[in-house]
């Protein structure tokens, strides 16, 4: 039902659990998101939960090389990147509690034990940890789900909660979660929970091998959790004989063995599942009424058709320091794609290693990096931490400014843009950030006074914060079509407010500040001096949506495509829009 209703428990709630097999990183998150898209297309309200069995409390202190990006939510939650997929696919806004980790559960239980809430009892994995997991799931599933593009939406209670269990089946760390989910299924009844297992079917010498999937199903069943559907990840469409073979071992009819083979765009996965009647299978299992003609995912079908018809290419040079794996900048690459589609271009990202632009870099690598930023239509410098590659990023900023290359800086990208201007326009040769050099005369970027230098986890400036635009003539105001901007942050350092007046003498204009007027949020160059030079302290990529691009990314792609970046066009209402123009001072 679409009607808002109060729910004190998950009575009547349906659950779809998506878990893995013997291999990780094969697309459970995209499969779970795509299933949720189908359910939403049936007219049902959908919530999502990600379970990560690692001991970290959250993803905030993890290396982007090892774990990919840390995705930041409105409430400041630092979470697994799959929550970004959930928000982008479903156009919803989630909370930190939608990401459950072993660290959070154990912290919760130990805190209760220290408070004496288990007085006299021996605290054990079963039942105390498993009960805490089940209670957490039911509590979060019962919360209203808020729209990702309507900031005034108070939310609706979900009809279905899709839960993705990270990791692989058989892991020691996953065992308490599987047991908790098994107990939850017993508590709410078989008709209220469906289990989808995502397994790998590798291609070896041209032959699809089903044995890994058979073992995965066997391992899950041995834990007392029985899959209702098996989604087989494979390079090409799963052969019918292999469907029957897997079905026999899983004790499922072949129509419940779903081929999730490689497609050109991840946005085609919902179509793949729809064509194999996954929505009908779920509605039958969960005894949910499926209206005639549902699921309706015509907007996704139109998007995929549009993607297939894109021909003209736009090249963006991404000057980063975590380029070994693109997952480190996943939201940035998705935001670039969303904006490229909006300007009818096929995005091509050139990955430029920042260190290759520095003095002392290998001559051949330096030559290639310079060619890459020269040939690109636009440049983006994303966020990051530490001094590695900083001089290369500063040089890239200088190139973009002097050569009038469309430029977008995000978080650290804004900070290095300011440092570059201070060095080359104000002639402050020692201009730097306190993050890199202590005691410089010209620390144009400083540590935020409220931050902690001893506790690392959860101590940055996090979550959605308001930025007040200082003039209606700036590019940002025209892109956001409003007087203020509500975007997500993740940083410890900021532009030194004591040096702003001198910095603005270079031609940079700090057009966005926080509500106190003390914290610099957005810097631009005048449109007459540069076609598009914008940098923001916040992370606009976290609120970019498949059908609704982030405004600053849209401006970059317009400028890189030879279009007017500040042109006002009709776009869906987004959480990035602010108030009316008349309120701009």
Could you describe the 3D structure shown?
- There is one protein chain.
- By secondary structure, this protein is of the alpha/beta class.
- Helix content is 33%, strand content 21%.
- It contains 18 helices and 26 strands.
- Strands 16-15-17-18-26-25-24-21-22 form a 9-stranded mixed β-sheet, sandwiched between helices. It has a 7-stranded parallel β-sheet with strand order 6-2-9-1-10-13-14, sandwiched between helices.
- Helix 1 runs parallel beside helix 3 (82-90), helix 12 (330-342) crosses helix 18 (551-560) and helix 14 (390-402) crosses helix 15 (412-424).
- Mean pLDDT is 90; it is low at 1-9 and 572-585.
Shape: globular
Count the helices. How many?
Answer: 18
- How would a crystallographer describe the biggest sheet? 9 strands, mixed
- Total strand segments: 26
Q: In order across it, which strands form the biggest sheet?
A: 16-15-17-18-26-25-24-21-22
Helicity range:
25-40%
Q: What is the beta-strand fraction?
A: 15-25%
Poorly predicted segments:
1-9, 572-585
How much is the average pLDDT? Answer: 90
Separation of the first and last Cα atoms: 44 Å
The chain-level structural class is alpha/beta
Output the radius of gyration: 25 Å
